[in-house]
Specification:
By secondary structure, the chain is an alpha/beta fold. Helices cover about 40% and strands about 15% of the residues. The strands form 2 sheets. The chain has a 7-stranded mixed beta sheet. The chain has a two-stranded antiparallel ribbon with strand order 2-3. It starts with 7 loop residues before the first strand and ends with a helix. The relative contact order is 0.14.
């Protein structure tokens, strides 16, 4: 099924207020702000799609909107806490058929696996194509592509406060109500140790590992070679950490 027959979007969720790492969207990894890195990676997804930054009406998120303007991409401001409501507004305003949920703390996301997920979701008429069902990729490389029709069918007045923030959890809690499938990956990409490493900028302790990867990925940008390189770097990082511990 041709994806050109559908309107696709990448909704990039970002806000400045964070309990664990305030204002991390502007934190520079190897000289480039986190949000800028996520935008750069998202732009490499080849499917014809619209990128929309989902942020809040809070004054602190003016910075997020300025970054969107500087990168010539759309943004939408909604509730600070109710991400589910924000998403509904975007789906209706931009008339999307399918969208990728992209968290703003994923500077190393792989565009290639997002393309796979869009194609699989459309071809198999899925409500959700996910790398979390079960988890087959490490945090920060997570992929979720969702049909707008299924998302808009959820009764927003009956979801929990937790699911208002973690918007796809409604699918995982009610798998019999939706058509969900795990993302089909080439065998060369599959990870055997998805819990060992995280490629999100969640806390300050993540900075060194992410910078190490960014410095050493060189010209490997996405796909099978990208994951192979990440695995090699993870192995090397383990050795570095062990040597540092021995030298303390």
């Amino acid at each position: 099924m041709n994806s050109r027959n559908y309107k696709l979007g990448c909704i990039l969720y970002s806000r400045m207020k964070s309990s664990r790492f305030p204002e991390k969207a502007r934190f520079k990894l190897e000289g480039i702000p986190l949000l800028e890195r996520v935008i750069q990676r998202t732009k490499k997804i080849n499917e014809q799609k619209e990128i929309i930054i989902a942020t809040s009406i809070d004054k602190s998120d003016d910075y997020i909107c300025d970054i969107a303007k500087n990168n010539n991409i759309a943004f939408h401001r909604g509730s600070l806490e109710n991400v589910f409501e924000r998403t509904i507004e975007i789906l209706k305003n931009f008339n999307l058929d399918y969208f990728a949920r992209i968290c703003g703390d994923r500077p190393l996301l792989d565009p290639f696996v997002h393309e796979l997920a869009f194609n699989q979701c459309i071809k198999e008429k899925l409500d959700l194509c996910s790398s979390l069902y079960p988890k087959i990729l490490p945090p920060g490389l997570t992929v979720e592509v969702i049909s707008a029709k299924s998302f808009l069918s959820i009764n927003k007045n009956k979801i929990s406060d937790f699911n208002k923030e973690h918007i796809t959890n409604e699918y995982y809690e009610n798998p019999n109500s939706f058509k969900i499938k795990s993302l089909s990956l080439p065998p060369e990409i599959k990870w055997s140790n998805v819990e060992d490493f995280s490629y999100t900028l969640d806390e300050r302790k993540d900075i060194d590992f992410l910078n190490y990867n960014i410095r050493n990925l060189e010209n490997v940008k996405f796909g099978i070679k990208y994951h192979s390189r990440l695995k090699d770097l993870a192995y090397d990082w383990n050795k570095i950490v062990k040597n540092n511990v021995k030298n303390i």
